[in-house]
Amino acid sequence: MMQDGFHIRSNVSELSVGGDGRTVTGLLAPYNEIARVDDGFGPYWETFDPGCFERPMRGKPQYLRLQLEHNGHWVGRGDVWRDGPDGLAADLRLDNTEAGREAAFKIRDGQTPGLSLAFIPGTSPTVKHGDGRQVVHRKRIKALHHVALCMTPAYAGAQVEAVRSAPEHVGPPERLAYWQQWTERIRRA
Questions:
Q1: CB 123 within 8 A of CB 43
Q2: Nearest to residue 93, comparing CAs of 19, 169, 172, 21?
Q3: In this structure, are residues 118 and 7 in contact, taking their beta carbons and an 8 Å threshold?
Q4: Domain covering 2-188: architecture
Q5: How far apart are CA 41 and CA 130, in angstroms?
Q6: Do the Cβ atoms of 6 and 119 come closer than 8 Å?
Q7: In the chain, domain spans
Q8: Which of 30, 43, 107, 141 is the Cys-Cys partner for 87 at CB 3.0 to 4.6 Å?
Q9: What is the pLDDT of residues 153-169, one digit of tens each?
Q10: What angle do CA 29, 36, 85 make, to 5 degrees?
Q11: Nearest to 10 by CA among 55, 51, 69, 56
Q12: 134 vs 126: CA distance, rounded Å
């Protein structure tokens, strides 16, 4: 699928939520897996080649936004990104907001079992495979736009590995505690 000039690819798996359930870990784009996709101009076969995400990984992907569906709420952001032998994986952090809690609920409820990646493609030659399929090989991705929690997969082999909780703080974070103490001292003065 294509939206606003970005190519969209979705991946599915079963998710579970534990603790505060705000960290989503998963594989966004598997390498060497062929999938049938459609960007609005008719279906075709596609695969991501190892190393195709080298350029976007040089930037600051941890600031990439996480959305609930591609046209939905902004519910978090990328946290840790790994371009490994299996493909592009990430730890995504859900916001502690109503939208973030809604996203966590939809994951637990099975409404959004997949992750989807919006990207701008670069070099992508078409290669005829032994089985006769013409397959577009994504050799270079120019940029990543966002990640979305979604319900419709494109790549069955890419999957969310886990939804886990962050360490829970005892009391407010250090900076907030400082300002709370400072405010209390000022009020007493």
A1: no
A2: 21
A3: yes
A4: Alpha-Beta Barrel (3.20)
A5: 25
A6: yes
A7: 2-188
A8: 30
A9: 677 655 555 555 444 44
A10: 25
A11: 69
A12: 6
Rounded CA gap, 165 and 120, in Å? 31
For residue 64, the one-letter residue type is L
3-state class of 189 per DSSP?
Answer: coil
Q: What is the pLDDT of residues 134-152, one digit of tens each?
A: 999 999 999 888 888 888 6
Report d(CA 15, CA 32) in Å as an integer. 24
Residue-level length of the chain = 189
Kindly give, in sequence order, each residue whose CB lies less than 8 Å from that of residue 111, ignoring residues fewer than 6 positions away.
151
Lowest mean pLDDT among 21-25, 44-48, 171-175: 171-175
Cα(103)–Cα(68) distance, integer angstroms: 6
Place of tokens 């040089």: 58
* Cα atoms in the Cβ-side hemisphere of radius 13 Å centred on 168: 7
